[in-house]
């Protein structure tokens, strides 16, 4: 088939126009960020796991965003991280200058009809997940605890952030399913504050404690026996938690295992970052590319290595797919889960 000179010229012009449009779009994104400071909102106080990962990303993502903006962390503790998530979704600027690090309970809270969950998890525009982790519960040495099953005989007092946070939901679920004697004291600003309360003897234990902490920043406390693993909640046992029982092995039937997966499953999607709905598409695309570039950059990995943080990133598509898998459960399971974690 013979192609006319006019057709060739038309195709060339069209390609040139597309290239010019793409370049102009990229320039516009760079122009926007060049004069901005980007904030990573973390719903907990400084020193905890969420804050640590938020600051890790903040130190590196700016180099990969067009315009290379300055990036800071804004701590906004309250309601187990829900205050920050709700603020970013409903009130924060929708221009791409605000990122948020969410927690695992924010994924299931809307499905469970939580009164403070004023967001749609799938309207958030996800950038990706920085690590896949395993959660567990640890006790202080002074508590004398060695395993979660001790709660069948004596009361265990757990410290937690918000009443709807994973640190509160996780022990409540076990108390409901197995009749364990557990008390949850919520209201701490972060897990670092809970660990301090454990040292003082105010509480015995904390949940939503990550394997990455156990082999990283809290490794010395784990090795010395200052912190004692009493339960683990991953899909399989993690060496960081030693011989502590796996939560799913305590289940007596498939329904209990499904309820546990609904509550505990999101914890393996450990550090997901998002921007709110309404951010222009070209800026979302740039932030997603920047997140993935930063998560895989030698600089961030070296930084994480120095802090003994485990990095196992997920793309934004993988993150959304993981959320859908967690939420794809029968309504009766959700109803049982609601009852199980009720205060």
What can you see in these coordinates?
It is a single chain. With 343 residues, this protein is of the alpha/beta class. The chain has helices at 5-34, 49-61, 82-90, 105-108, 166-178, 191-200, 211-214, 219-224, 247-250, 254-264, 281-295, 298-306, 316-327, 331-340, and strands at 37-42, 70-75, 98-101, 125-129, 135-140, 156-159, 182-185, 205-210, 227-232, 272-275, 314-315. The protein has two domains: 20-133 and 268-340, D-Maltodextrin-Binding Protein, domain 2; 135-266, Periplasmic binding protein-like II (D-Maltodextrin-Binding Protein, domain 2). It contains 14 helices and eleven strands. The strands form two sheets. Strands 2-1-3-10-4-11 form a six-stranded mixed β-sheet, sandwiched between helices. A five-stranded mixed β-sheet has the order 7-6-8-5-9. α5 links the parallel β6 and β7 (182-185). α2 (49-61) packs antiparallel against α12 (298-306), α5 (166-178) packs antiparallel against α10 (254-264) and α10 (254-264) crosses α14. The protein is globular, with a radius of gyration of 22 Å. It starts with a helix and ends with a helix. Mean pLDDT is 90; it is low at 13-22.
Series of H and E elements: HEHEHEHEEEHEHEHHEHHEHHEHH
Question: Structural class of the helix and strand makeup?
Answer: alpha/beta
* Text of the CATH class of the largest domain: Alpha Beta
What is the beta-strand fraction? 15-25%
Rough shape? Answer: globular
* CATH topology-level name of the largest domain: D-Maltodextrin-Binding Protein, domain 2
Sketch the major β-sheet. Answer: 6 strands, mixed
pLDDT < 50 stretches: 13-22
Count of helical segments? 14
